[in-house]
Amino acid sequence: MSQPSTPPQQPEQKYPEFKFRTKPVQERSVWESYAVLPARTRLYISLGITAFAAAGLFVSDQLEKVFPPEPTPPKASSQQPSP
User: At 62, is the secondary structure helix, strand, or coil?
Assistant: First the structure.
């Protein structure tokens, strides 16, 4: 007696399969290229952008202390008295 043939089982994938991983680099969008980078590289890029933004906020606050904005004159009320 022969054993019944069973289809080979595919191993469970630990991570979801992304279709853009198989695209050539020239056909990928910026997001797809970013998504295929290793996790540590994406982390470093995100931390760099965050640090740059935080530095920009700090520098703009310091510049505002050194060069205070000129006060604007109060606007004249445009309301006309009712007759």
Answer: helix
Output phi, psi for 31, to 5 deg.
Answer: -65, -40
Distance CA 48, CA 42 (A): 10
Tell me the per-residue pLDDT of 27-75, one tens digit each, with 9 for 90 and over.
Answer: 888 988 898 899 999 999 999 999 999 999 999 999 999 998 888 888 8
Structure tokens at 67: 């060069």
CA distance 17 to 70: 57
Which residue in 64, 34, 62, 61 sits closest to 49, CA to CA? 34
Cα angle 20, 46, 65 (rounded to 5 degrees) comes to 150
- Report the C-alpha gap between 47 and 54 in whole angstroms: 10
- Asked whether 20 and 34 are in contact (CB, 8 A), the reply is no
